[in-house]
Amino acid sequence: MEFKDSKTYANLHAAFAGESQAWAKYSFFSKKAKKDGYQQIANIFDETARNESAHAKIWFEYIVNGIKETGENLKAAQEGEHYEWTEMYAQFAKEAKEEGFTEIAKKFELVAAIEKSHDERYGKLLANVQDGKVFARNEGAVWVCLNCGHIYTGTTPPVICPVCKHPQAYFEIQAKNY
């Protein structure tokens, strides 16, 4: 029997979905408990959410046969986001309108627009990985260390941060949106 045709494979999908939903749900519950003044309960919801996340990862790794390299993950993420905004949410909005749920239809449309931006962002990030431009620019850029805040100007950030010794992976182009 092919693994993908097995009941076990279907069960892995169900387990992944259940654990992922529990992870999200408990994260929401934690925020509410904290807002309501119950820090201990919020902490317990957070701890349980982390546990559920770990369980979801176990089942996901079986489903996809291990987490792939970043380029493949970006491609998969882009494909998923593209499906969500071009097909899934478009269909959901259409059906909600037909059933008279106009507020929900509008939310589906608004979220579809967000998913489109995710699709585009993952596409650009994938191109940067494929073209070797994650840590290199043709023109000088301002790079910032995400650990200590060190600022460096140049075409590539330092291999090692001269301040905190974190690797180049901790640098990103500084964005000023203020």
Instruction: Specify the CATH architecture of the largest domain.
Output: Up-down Bundle
Specify the biggest β-sheet: 3 strands, antiparallel
Strand content: 5-15%
Multimerization status = single chain
> What is the tally of helical segments?
4
Alpha-carbon distance between the termini?
A: 58 Å
Order of helices and strands: HHHHEEE
Radius of gyration: 21 Å
Query: Might you state the CATH topology name of the largest domain?
Result: Ferritin
Mean pLDDT: 97
The figure for the number of domains is: 3
Q: What proportion of the residues is helical, as a percent range?
A: 55-70%
Cofactor: Fe(3+)
Pfam families: Rubrerythrin, RUBY_RBDX
GO molecular function, one term: oxidoreductase activity
Domain Ferritin-like diiron: 2-133
Descriptive key words:
63% helix; metal-binding; 4 helices; single chain; iron ion binding; transport; 178 residues; three-stranded antiparallel sheet; Ferritin-like_SF; Ferritin; Ferritin-like; mainly alpha
Explain what this protein looks like in three dimensions.
- This protein is mostly helical.
- The chain folds into 3 domains: 3-64, Ferritin, core subunit, four-helix bundle (Ferritin); 70-130, Ferritin, core subunit, four-helix bundle (Ferritin, Up-down Bundle), CATH 1.20.1260.10; 141-173, Rubrerythrin, domain 2 (Single Sheet).
- Helix content is 63%, strand content 7%.
- It has 4 helices and 3 strands.
- The chain has helices at residues 7-35, 39-64, 70-98, 102-130, and strands spanning 141-145, 151-154, 171-173.
- It has a 3-stranded antiparallel sheet, with no helix packed on it.
- Helix 1 (7-35) runs antiparallel to helix 2 and helix 3 (70-98) packs antiparallel against helix 4 (102-130).
- The radius of gyration is 21 Å and the shape is globular.
- The mean pLDDT is 97.
- InterPro entries: Ferritin-like, Ferritin-like_diiron, Ferritin-like_SF, Rr_diiron-bd_dom, Rubredoxin-like_dom, Rubrerythrin, RUBY_RBDX.
- GO terms for molecular function: iron ion binding; oxidoreductase activity.
- Residues 140-174 form the Rubredoxin-like domain.
- Residues 2-133 form the Ferritin-like diiron domain.
- Keywords: Electron transport, Iron, Metal-binding, Transport.
